[in-house]
Write a structure and sequence with these properties.
- The protein is mainly beta.
- The protein is built from three helices and 23 strands.
- Strands 2, 4, 5, 6, 8, 9 and 10 form a seven-stranded mixed β-sheet that branches. Strands 13, 15, 16, 17, 19, 20 and 21 form a seven-stranded mixed β-sheet that branches.
Length: 452
């Protein structure tokens, strides 16, 4: 018996990235070569979250029959839309086609109790997470978030079910407008206050000792502050700045400074995958650290009390690895920003290091215009208003055979007795008289008619 051919065709680009509220349209095609008895034909639009992992498993006394590892797997439906196209019926040999239309929901649908997933994972409906494919470090470990349209044909006999699936890519939409520039916040690093070690007395001269006793810059107490963003979107500049304050001279009257020697910036990615009951603790954490900036021997001045920028044109690459921060039932993705700054004061070195959470926002759709800042003013173009045509007409050039130019130095101010030329010349003279100030003498032009 020839198997029926089942296909799912989605309209538009197959690589399109969908967002909440967008329509998914297409067709279900079924080609039947022989008469078929079917139980049902359904089309399913759903999102799934699947996690897999394994753990060592050993039972003493019965090692031969027990596998060395125990596999765990959990499947969660983020949402499910199902439409029955054909109920139980008999299909004649023919090519069938049906259309479908679904809308991406804004949030998930499942609700779970605390005892099922524990306190660290979401149990209530929340915004849909992005499409994700991840392999963990454990044997057989994986985490998948996928969205699809599936045609499901159930035969009436023992052949079971025939399925055809079309995968869809999904990316969240930013909550509200994303500013053009990332907002930064400051962090006072009290735990990294630094003071230089005292120099040996025998290395100082008498003049140095007197000067150092009077100078507040001789042995400063340095308090660093780091300026960094808490959230960033792909394509935005990541601003990083530092300021050093000498607590013994807050206004820097001594004009003291340090030297920026080195800079290292690392972005860390942490992906968490869990499956099974929380009491068994089958949880995998995958970490990845990418050093984005590594500079040495910078020799950049850091005056006390002044904020100095550390980065310029430092942006996230908008690619498949740039998954926004999210948290769903059994999978989470978060990021951290680590900044290490090497500083010199005289001949002594110290390091300022800070690790802060970094939220990566969803990328803006390319078809949407860039958001405006709060202070940006938009000047709309004026509306087109038709105006009346001008009532001034051009002179009758056909009646003028030629125009010759003579200067006022010839003392010829008389006009020829031509009517048409007189009208044109009078108008020109009137225009010159109006536009010329009375206190200035301008060379006059006289138009003469030349008899041919």
């Amino acid at each position: 018996m020839t198997e029926p051919v089942l296909r799912v065709i989605v309209d538009g680009d197959s690589n399109k990235t969908y967002r909440k509220g967008e329509l998914v349209t297409g067709r279900i095609i079924l080609i039947v070569e022989e008469q078929e008895q079917i139980e049902s034909l359904k089309v399913v639009f759903a999102g799934s979250c699947i996690t897999k992992t394994s753990r060592p498993y050993r039972i003493y006394g019965n090692d031969d029959d027990v596998p060395p590892r125990r596999d765990y797997e959990e499947k969660i439906r983020l949402f499910n839309r199902e439409i029955e196209i054909i109920p139980r019926s008999t299909l004649d040999p023919k090519k069938y086609s049906w259309t479908f239309e679904f809308t991406f929901p804004e949030s998930t649908e499942q609700r779970y109790k605390r005892l099922i997933h524990g306190p660290n994972y979401l149990r209530e409906p929340h915004p849909l997470p992005p499409t994700l494919q991840l392999k963990t470090n454990t044997p057989g470990g994986a985490a998948h978030i996928s969205y699809f349209v599936q045609a499901r044909l159930v035969f009436a006999d023992s052949r079971g079910t025939k399925r055809c699936k079309h995968m869809l890519r999904y990316h969240p939409t930013p909550q509200g407008e994303v500013p053009r520039e990332a907002k930064i916040t400051s962090a006072l690093l009290y735990g990294q206050r630094w003071k230089p070690a005292k120099e040996k007395e025998n290395t100082r001269t008498a003049v140095d000792k007197v000067f150092l006793r009077r100078s507040s810059n001789s042995n400063p107490r340095i308090l660093p502050s780091l300026w960094h963003p808490e959230s960033i979107a792909p394509g935005q500049h990541i601003p990083l700045s530092i300021s050093l304050v000498n607590t013994r001279d807050p206004f820097n009257e001594a004009k003291g400074e340090c030297i920026l020697d080195s800079l290292s910036v690392t972005i860390s990615t942490y992906s968490t995958s869990m499956c099974g009951h929380h009491m068994t603790e089958p949880e995998d954490i995958v970490s990845k650290h990418v050093t984005c900036i590594a500079r040495t021997s910078m020799n950049k001045s850091l005056p006390f009390g002044k904020m100095v920028s550390l980065t310029s044109n430092f942006r996230l690459v908008d690619d498949a690895e740039c998954v926004p921060t999210f948290k769903t039932y059994t999978i989470t993705r978060r990021y951290a920003l680590t900044v290490s700054i090497g500083i010199k004061f005289n001949d002594q070195h110290f390091t300022v290091k800070s690790t802060t959470p970094l939220e990566i926002l969803p990328r803006m759709p390319r078809e949407l215009p860039s958001p405006l800042e709060d202070g940006d003013d938009v000047d709309p173009l004026p509306l087109y208003v038709p105006r009346e045509p001008s009532k001034e007409f051009a002179p009758d050039y056909e009646s003028i055979y030629a125009l010759s130019r003579t200067t006022s130095s010839e003392n010829s101010m008389a006009l020829p007795p031509s009517r048409s030329s007189s009208l044109f010349s009078s108008a020109s003279a009137l225009s010159s008289a109006v536009s010329t100030p009375p206190s200035r003498e301008v060379e006059q032009l006289v138009l003469e008619r030349v008899e041919g």
